[in-house]
Design a protein that fits this description.
The protein is mainly α. The chain has 14 helices and no strands. Helix 6 packs across helix 9 and helix 10 packs parallel to helix 12. It is globular, with a radius of gyration of 21 Å.
Length: 282
């Protein structure tokens, strides 16, 4: 297990840094260890799932999106067995994460409609507006109800962050069409009060006002959202500021220019802000 973990981590680090051949070699070493059959049935399946996910990431980095999807589906099948046959309850969140990875793959190959549709389906499922996910396997909503609310909330925020990344910097009409399409599966409505992650849902309302060119509403919602601080949703906080800077550019007023300059100045000191959002702020 220790050798497998080391090989897997070496491969992931190499893949993230662009060393794709080194990553392939590390994953091949990990697969060789699994073939020794030194683990129990469920242990072998668990590590097989980890390996499929890691190799899917390598495929994604290489632009081999169909192969990446196939590996994710293999991992989904394994996790469902671990969940249903062996009683690994946390494998359920592993499956949700895998479906989230499918969203990333769709976005990576520019299938934005499919990516947004699936992302909103995940949100709707976690929120309770959808009873099942449109992915093979057992997804009855009772499985969500059995989970700790804070874990469900964290997953909701994570997927909302993925939506923010997909929409960032794109044409307003295109984003409007995507949001309208996605809201068929998880409605964005100011009148709804109960949400598994209120802050992440609040960002959807902020984004909706921005895209609909409701300047006053956007400024009010964005002000409240920003005042809450980065907290556990820093990505959504940065996305809101990126939209605020875009509005400042559009207004081109002395006051809006001053605000933009202040944001851009502060942005240089923010930790863990992605290059994409930093570029939008600049």
């Amino acid at each position: 297990m220790h050798k497998f973990d080391n090989a897997l981590q070496r491969g992931l680090i190499a893949a993230r840094r662009g060393g794709l051949n080194a990553a392939e070699q590390a994953f091949a070493a990990a697969r060789l260890l699994l073939q020794l059959n030194k683990l129990s049935n469920e242990g072998g399946m668990l590590y097989q799932s980890f390996l499929e996910q890691a190799e899917a990431y390598l495929d994604y980095r290489r632009g081999e999106f169909e192969q990446a999807r196939n590996r994710i589906y293999q991992a989904l099948e394994i996790n469902l067995i671990l969940e249903d046959k062996y009683g690994y309850e946390m494998a359920f969140f592993g499956r949700i994460q895998l479906v989230h990875n499918l969203v990333r793959i769709d976005a990576g190959c520019m299938e934005f409609n499919r990516a947004i549709k699936l992302a909103f389906q995940i949100l709707g499922y976690l929120e309770g507006t959808l009873d099942v996910l449109p992915i093979s396997g057992n997804w009855d909503y009772e499985r969500v109800k059995r989970q700790r609310p804070e874990f469900v909330a964290a997953m909701f925020a994570q997927v909302t962050g993925e939506i923010a990344i997909i929409l960032a910097g794109k044409n307003c009409q295109f984003v409007s069409d995507l949001l309208t399409f996605g809201s068929n599966y998880m409605p964005i409505s100011f009148n709804q009060n109960h949400h598994c992650h209120p802050q992440a849902y609040a960002w959807l309302l902020v984004k909706q006002a921005f895209i609909n060119n409701q300047v006053g509403t956007f400024l009010e919602r964005a002000s409240n959202f920003i005042a809450e601080g980065r907290g556990y949703t820093p990505l959504l906080w940065y996305a809101t500021l990126a939209d605020l800077v875009a509005l400042c550019n559009e207004l081109a007023l002395p006051e809006s220019n001053l605000l933009k300059q202040e944001i851009v100045k502060d942005a240089t000191s923010w930790k863990n802000i992605s290059r994409k959002f930093l570029a939008l702020l600049s």
